[in-house]
Amino acid sequence: MFCVHILIVILVAVRNVSSINSFLYMNIHNSGFHREIHYSLKFGAISKMSCELLLLQHFSSAIYVDTDQLTNMKKFKKINSYVPFYVDVEKPTSKSSPFSVYLYETVRREVNITLPIHFRYHDPSEKKFERIQIESPSMYLQCRVTSSKNPLKTTATFRHPCSSSAQIYDYDKLNQAEYCDWQELEFSNVPTVISVLIPTGNSVSYKFVFPATILVSWIGSMYLIYIIVKSGKRINKKLL
């Protein structure tokens, strides 16, 4: 009976060692409309495997990434990312759509990724702030295993852009990305959902702000015209 108990303990230990343990810690840095999401991932039981990591981050229409900024970061080896289309940074939230960002890395004991994000302007409302939530990303792996048995305990296999997609710099070729099979892996912990408050315009003040803005702009324009005409006359007198 004692030997049976020892055997059970050994089998449980082997089973735990044979699967990858993954922990995600997600934080947001800076303030205002321009911030950074910092992903800190920690892995266990990866000594016999060589794996590629894909973080699939979904964003609401209230958020955007600057694809030009990401391209420059990729050239300096600061990030490996892929966005399926060129992002229009000028659109407000009401005219934008949700989208996804693909982040690639090589699996190590500890992986850190910093993604700059920006918040779009909202239409004026009676609320002073709009609450924006950022859900935790999904994680997928591609592993080359030294043994014949695959130790990954995955939920399913999905087709997503290959890691080579991060090397596409021509915006006209973004839709030509190749797709690969990725195995979804759940995090060992429960990542925290990030909640951010973004200020919005006050629609109640519209009746006052709109005419006041036009009046101030008109007065400023007239004053500039007066100064320009006065300065022109003074210069003409000096020339004569």
* Largest sheet report: 6 strands, antiparallel
| Strand arrangement in the largest pleated sheet | 5-6-3-9-11-10
Cα-to-Cα separation, first versus last residue: 117 Å
As a percent range, the share of helical residues equals 10-25%
Question: Any overview of this molecule?
Answer:
This protein is an alpha+beta fold and 240 residues long. The chain has three helices and twelve strands; from the N terminus they run H-E-E-E-E-H-E-E-E-E-E-E-E-E-H. The protein has helices at 2-17, 67-75, 206-239, and strands spanning 21-29, 34-44, 49-59, 63-64, 81-82, 99-106, 110-119, 129-134, 138-145, 157-161, 179-184, 194-199. The strands form three sheets. Strands 5-6-3-9-11-10 form a six-stranded antiparallel β-sheet, with no helix packed on it. The longest helix has 34 residues, at 206-239. The protein is elongated. Residues 1-18 have low confidence and may be disordered.
Task: Give a short synopsis of this structure.
This protein is an alpha+beta fold and 240 residues long. It is built from three helices and twelve strands, in the order H-E-E-E-E-H-E-E-E-E-E-E-E-E-H.
Structure characteristics:
240 residues, alpha+beta, six-stranded antiparallel beta sheet, four-stranded antiparallel beta sheet, 3 helices, 25% helix, 35% strand, elongated, disordered N terminus
